[in-house]
């Protein structure tokens, strides 16, 4: 399964983190730092895989892709195929690109929750559930609609619903 | 008050927060802590919108800035129950991020989860499932199993696939859920929705990786997917599953190898092809044509410029290499070339391939190539290379090394590579080879000498450990040294002050050994000249020595000395008259000095030697480092003693001969002390020590500490055997308290102590010598083996000496090998004991599954045709065969009334399913019972659970039926 997804910029600032096993926030930050330490020491045009046993425990691998100012990092174990993971990063980035029209780091910085929505449509509890960016887009749009609708509806009865439970 | 209203009116949104952080880059920590204070206030708001925004900001800060948000857990639960989708979404995200097993409020979420799982809005269901897939606890999983069971057959694919995927977490938290949901999960393998199928395959792949054996009965379903599916994601998973199943069932492997090869030939997706190749080389390596095809594919892609593909194919090659060396040979050029690739992954992988191919015949060649690469490489890869050479060569006690002279020289060469940081490992191997391989000692001393006399090496801190080993080897095996005087100069050169104290201490001790050797050789030489050939009875064996080559004789002596494993103990403890005799008898056989003495040892050179030592060690004797100080003082004190005993040594030569006809006993004793063989000690030697009668090791030693305290002994000292003995020797009244050590209460404590030591060392050594290498020139070891342990304790050295046999020349040197086989089984046992709860429960269900098939095939010979009929029936009424199981494999339903009633509760919730459900419950209960009482009775279970291999055997009749 996929253990974690991390998006960070080339300065090591995380932009999106998702750990599919619980990890305390400090531990997450430490792992992100160590991942960045590994990534920034790698040259361009080398392979995208890193054995991550020393960072994430036995039987873990890390695959990353470098787009402009961002690193997209997936951590996974032997139940996943390395090349498929590489493709999945591509799927994620393509979806973001469609979603934000020429995605750049700022889009990712300011659309934190939308990013989660997109990622959650692709990966569910560490399992890959959707690999078509069109399908992901459809679901994401519907969820966004639902969110805005619920926000406007709740403008009036929100205090009531607050008392309810 | 006013401010809170202002805050709620002008609450910062997440976007404001992000903007703020970006504006306050320099004061980021202050800004974040201020924002956290805001959040803490806002989150308490009764207005759900304010609360949700606060929670969203908090989640953001926690995920990206590592802020603790465990304190907000209750607010998360509150917000989860909001009816607004947007709030719910924020709350579920926060819960997925921050809840864990120890979050107590997660218990409060059960109801909300149930409500959302039953929601008409598929996106709400999806939110809840998402969150569950990350944070489900055993309680949540147990309570929500019925809901998930329902969702498994949801008509909406977007929900169905998520329900399937969440199963993984549910099973791992609450294994018993498998009894309810497993059949539904299997049904999803036939789902028409590709996403659901893909999700199900993902789940089965995860499950099968953990415990493949349990999923063998599902092989036919997987096989169908392997042949029919056109979805690469699904195929990758199914190939992975077969990679796990095939090794368990040869006939299955036979069946799947062709379809997998077919995919390999046809697929355009490199990911799928790689998966097929990997599966073939790892799990189907016996199928020559398949492996050949895989290697062809590897070769085609190995030349690819894409570093990712190159890396992965090299990886596949690493897997093939051990069984199919030809595959590497065919690609040798690419592999060697990859050693200088720009990509560290590729370099490392090609190094691994090379190391896999190392064998007796090519180790020298490969090591040569690699060492040359290492010299040119960057420090990191250089050490990677050296490390893998060292570990490959030392594997299994230097199994692949034929020529130890070559290997020892290689170690010396590696030490001199500028980037070498493997000092510790090289140090260990130099000493280890010295102890294990007698024939390598000459070369070791040579290599050691070369390292020691090079003053440039002293400046490199990475080499200090190696120099320590070189010094130790040179001192320990000084009899092989061509020029002990030169060695002494190297050991005492002024630049050794650059070394750390621990290494210098080794240097001083080695100098001591060299000194003793020189004195002994010199005096022995004098004596043999001075005495008539008919020496006193002490030197009975001497006559055999002159004329032999010094090295061989020395080796001979070394072996002979192994006869006296206790001699050194005796020397230190209490040399009785008898023992002294033994020692002298042994020591009469150190004659090689005679041959050396002829060329090197003159009266003058010995005098110079003593002066050199006094000069060099004089200042050190005041060293602050106790180890150095003590050893230096020992040497100096010894020289003083010698000067008193042998005043002739420092005088003019003329009066020497008359004065010193007698061989000073002190030199004999010291020489004896240093020339005892040191051998390797097994890691588990201590376990083999038989526990003396009456000694209870597990007894609480609480009172011992008190006693030790009374004795003013440091309480931190380990509880060795020594402490009680010491006390009893002193005769303290407290020793009575230790009735446990009854045997040691006798009066002859000293004898006991010695006996204990005998017990401690002798049997273990006897066992330690492996019989893999017939100890042709160690015949006494075999004699030892034949003796009873009891006799060994009392065995005198004389009796051993009589068994001495002549030396034989041998092609490969004997490598003393410890019997390390003992350790592996212990580890394996532990692994077995640590069985996964999850796989245990899942296996229960699947074994139940298989019970049907066996019972059915027992019922009728035409089972296969009948089965097919049944399977078709499954499509309509999937739990059909399981109902049969419920009746057949469930003899003790009655025992589990309490559990059954509980499950009836669940049954009621889904009335429309109740008839089938009941059967399932019965089956579940039966299985639960089985699980509970598997060790008591129930034939099915005990047969299948007895152990792994049997299990597979009992299953074998099933699979071909399915497959054909």
> Which strand-content bin applies to the residues of chain B?
under 5%
Kindly name the structural category of chain B: mainly alpha
| Residues in helices of chain A, as a percent range | 40-55%
Number of helices of chain A: 7
Overall, the morphology of chain A is: globular
Q: Overall 3D geometry of chain B?
A: elongated
How many individual β-strands of chain A?
Answer: 7
Largest sheet of chain B: none
pLDDT average of chain A, as an integer? 87
Oligomeric state of this protein: heterodimer
Main location (chain B): membrane
Region (Disordered) (chain B): 853-964
Family (chain B): Belongs to the adaptor complexes large subunit family.
Keywords (chain B): Golgi apparatus, Membrane, Protein transport, Repeat, Transport
Keywords for this structure?
heterodimer, A: 5-stranded antiparallel beta sheet, 51% helix, B: 52 helices, disordered C terminus, AP_mu_sigma_su (chain A)
Topology (elements, then pairings):
The complex is a heterodimer of chains A (165) and B (964).
Chain A: E1 2-9, E2 14-19, H1 25-40, E3 49-51, H2 53-56, E4 60-67, E5 70-77, H3 82-100, H4 105-110, H5 112-122, E6 123-124, E7 127-128, H6 133-153, H7 158-164
Antiparallel strand pairs in A: 1-2, 1-5, 3-4, 4-5, 6-7
Chain B: H1 2-9, H2 14-23, H3 28-42, H4 48-65, H5 73-80, H6 85-98, H7 110-117, H8 122-135, H9 138-151, H10 157-173, H11 177-187, H12 194-210, H13 219-228, H14 232-245, H15 250-266, H16 270-283, H17 288-302, H18 307-320, H19 325-330, H20 332-338, H21 344-357, H22 363-376, H23 379-398, H24 404-415, H25 423-436, H26 441-452, H27 464-476, H28 484-491, H29 501-530, H30 550-561, H31 567-573, H32 577-587, H33 592-599, H34 603-620, H35 626-645, H36 656-659, H37 665-674, H38 702-710, H39 722-730, H40 749-768, H41 779-786, H42 789-794, H43 797-801, H44 823-833, H45 837-859, H46 863-876, H47 880-888, H48 897-909, H49 914-933, H50 939-945, H51 948-955, H52 958-963
Helix pairs in contact in B: 2-3, 3-4, 4-6, 5-6, 6-8, 7-9, 8-10, 9-10, 9-11, 10-11, 10-12, 12-14, 13-14, 13-15, 14-16, 15-16, 15-17, 16-17, 16-18, 17-18, 18-21, 21-23, 22-23, 24-25, 24-26, 25-27, 26-27, 27-29, 28-29, 29-33, 29-34, 29-35, 29-37, 30-33, 34-35, 45-47, 45-49, 47-49, 48-49
């Amino acid at each position: 399964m996929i253990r974690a997804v991390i998006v960070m910029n080339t300065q090591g600032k995380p932009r999106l983190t998702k750990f599919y096993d619980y990890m305390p926030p400090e531990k997450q930050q430490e792992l992100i730092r160590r991942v960045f330490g590994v990534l920034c020491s790698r040259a361009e045009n080398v392979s995208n895989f890193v054995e991550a046993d020393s960072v994430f425990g036995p039987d873990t691998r890390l695959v990353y892709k470098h787009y402009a100012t961002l690193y997209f990092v997936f951590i996974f174990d032997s139940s996943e195929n390395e090349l498929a993971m590489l493709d999945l990063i591509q799927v994620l980035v393509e979806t973001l690109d469609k979603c934000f029209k020429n995605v750049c780091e700022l889009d990712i910085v300011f659309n934190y929750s939308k990013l989660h929505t997109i990622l959650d449509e692709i990966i569910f509890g560490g399992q890959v559930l959707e690999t078509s960016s069109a399908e992901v887009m459809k679901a994401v749009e519907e969820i966004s609609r639902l969110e805005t609708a619920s926000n406007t509806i709740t403008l009036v009865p929100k205090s009531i619903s607050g008392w309810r439970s | 008050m006013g401010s809170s209203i202002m805050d709620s009116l002008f609450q910062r949104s997440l976007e404001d927060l992000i903007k703020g952080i970006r504006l306050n880059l320099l004061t980021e920590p202050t800004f974040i802590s201020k924002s956290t204070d805001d959040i803490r206030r806002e989150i308490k708001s009764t207005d759900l919108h304010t609360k949700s925004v606060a929670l969203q900001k908090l989640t953001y800060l926690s995920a990206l800035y590592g802020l603790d948000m465990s304190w907000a857990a209750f607010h998360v639960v509150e917000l989860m129950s909001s009816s607004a989708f947007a709030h719910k979404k924020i709350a579920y995200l926060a819960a997925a991020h921050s809840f864990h097993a120890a979050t107590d409020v997660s218990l409060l979420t059960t109801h909300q989860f149930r409500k959302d799982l039953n929601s008409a809005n598929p996106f709400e269901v999806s939110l809840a499932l998402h969150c569950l897939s990350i944070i489900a606890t055993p309680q949540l999983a147990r309570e929500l199993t019925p809901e998930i069971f329902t969702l498994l057959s949801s008509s909406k694919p977007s929900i169905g696939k998520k329900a399937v995927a969440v199963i993984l977490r549910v099973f791992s938290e609450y294994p018993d859920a498998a009894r309810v949901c497993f059949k539904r999960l299997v049904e999803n393998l036939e789902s028409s929705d590709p996403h659901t199928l893909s999700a199900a395959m993902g789940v089965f792949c995860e499950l099968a990786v953990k415990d493949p054996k349990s999923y063998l009965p599902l092989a036919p379903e997987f096989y169908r997917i392997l042949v029919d599916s056109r979805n690469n994601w699904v195929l990758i998973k199914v190939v992975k599953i077969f990679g796990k199943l095939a090794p368990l069932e040869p006939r299955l492997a036979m069946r799947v190898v062709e379809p997998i090869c077919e995919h390999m030939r046809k697929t355009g997706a490199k990911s799928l092809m790689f998966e097929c190749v990997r599966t073939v080389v790892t799990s189907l390596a016996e199928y020559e044509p398949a492996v050949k095809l895989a290697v062809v594919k590897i070769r085609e892609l190995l030349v690819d410029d894409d570093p990712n593909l190159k890396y992965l194919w090299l990886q596949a090659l690493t897997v093939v290499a051990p069984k199919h060396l030809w595959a590497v040979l065919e690609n040798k050029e690419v592999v060697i070339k990859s050693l200088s690739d720009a990509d560290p992954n590729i370099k490392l992988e090609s190094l691994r391939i090379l190391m896999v191919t190392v064998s007796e015949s090519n180790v020298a060649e490969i090591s040569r190539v690699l060492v040359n690469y290492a010299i040119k490489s960057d420090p990191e890869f250089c050490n990677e290379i050296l490390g893998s050479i060292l570990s490959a060569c030392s594997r299994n006690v230097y199994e692949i090394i034929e020529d130890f002279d070559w290997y020892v020289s290689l170690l010396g060469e590696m030490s001199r590579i500028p980037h070498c940081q493997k000092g510790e490992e090289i140090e260990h191997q130099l000493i280890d080879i010295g102890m294990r391989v007698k024939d390598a000692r000459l070369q070791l001393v040579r290599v050691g000498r070369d390292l020691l006399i090079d003053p440039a090496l002293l400046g490199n801190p990475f080499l200090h450990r190696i120099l320590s080993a070189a010094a130790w080897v040179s001192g320990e095996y000084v009899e092989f040294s061509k020029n002990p005087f030169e060695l002494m100069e190297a050991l005492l050169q002024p630049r050794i002050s650059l070394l750390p104290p621990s290494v210098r201490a080794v240097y001083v001790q080695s100098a001591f050994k060299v000194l003793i050797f020189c004195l002994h050789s010199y005096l022995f030489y004098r004596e043999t000249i001075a005495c008539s050939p008919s020496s006193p009875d002490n030197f009975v064996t001497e006559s055999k020595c002159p004329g032999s080559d010094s090295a061989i004789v020395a080796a001979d002596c070394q072996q002979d000395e192994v006869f006296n494993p206790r001699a050194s103990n005796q020397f230190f403890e209490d040399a009785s008259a008898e023992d002294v005799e033994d020692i002298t008898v042994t020591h009469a056989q150190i004659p090689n000095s005679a041959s050396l003495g002829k060329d090197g040892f003159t009266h003058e050179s010995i005098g110079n030697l003593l002066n050199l030592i006094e000069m060099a060690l004089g200042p050190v004797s005041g060293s602050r480092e106790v180890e150095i100080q003590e050893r230096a003082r020992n040497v100096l004190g010894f020289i003083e003693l010698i000067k008193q005993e042998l005043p002739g040594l420092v005088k003019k030569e003329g009066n020497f001969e008359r004065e010193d006809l007698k061989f000073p006993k002190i030199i004999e004793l010291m020489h004896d002390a240093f020339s005892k063989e040191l051998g390797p000690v097994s890691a588990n030697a201590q376990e083999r020590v038989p526990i003396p009668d009456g000694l209870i090791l597990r007894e609480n030693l609480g009172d011992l500490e008190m006693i030790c305290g009374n004795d003013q002994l440091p309480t931190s000292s380990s509880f060795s055997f020594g402490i009680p003995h010491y006390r009893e020797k002193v005769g303290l009244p407290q020793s009575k308290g230790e009735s446990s050590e009854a045997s040691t209460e006798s009066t002859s404590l000293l004898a006991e102590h010695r006996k204990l030591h005998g017990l401690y060392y002798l049997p273990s050594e006897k066992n330690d010598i492996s019989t893999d290498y017939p100890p042709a020139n160690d015949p006494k070891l075999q004699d030892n083996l034949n003796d009873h342990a009891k006799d060994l304790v009392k065995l005198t050295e004389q009796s051993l000496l009589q068994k001495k046999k002549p030396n034989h020349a041998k092609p490969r040197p004997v490598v003393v090998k410890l019997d390390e086989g003992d350790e592996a089984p212990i580890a394996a046992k532990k692994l077995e004991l640590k069985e996964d709860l999850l796989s245990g429960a899942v296996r229960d269900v699947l074994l139940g599954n298989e019970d049907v098939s066996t019972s059915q095939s027992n019922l009728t010979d035409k089972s296969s045709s009948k089965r097919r009929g049944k399977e078709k029936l499954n499509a309509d009424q999937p739990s059909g065969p399981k109902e049969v199981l419920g009746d057949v494999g469930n003899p003790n339903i009655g025992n589990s009334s309490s559990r059954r009633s509980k499950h009836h509760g669940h049954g009621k919730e889904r009335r429309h399913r109740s008839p089938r459900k009941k059967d399932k419950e019965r089956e579940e209960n039966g299985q639960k019972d089985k699980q509970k009482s598997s060790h008591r009775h129930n034939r099915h279970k005990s047969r299948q659970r007895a152990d792994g291999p049997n299990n597979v055997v009992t299953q074998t009749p099933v699979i071909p039926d399915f497959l054909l």
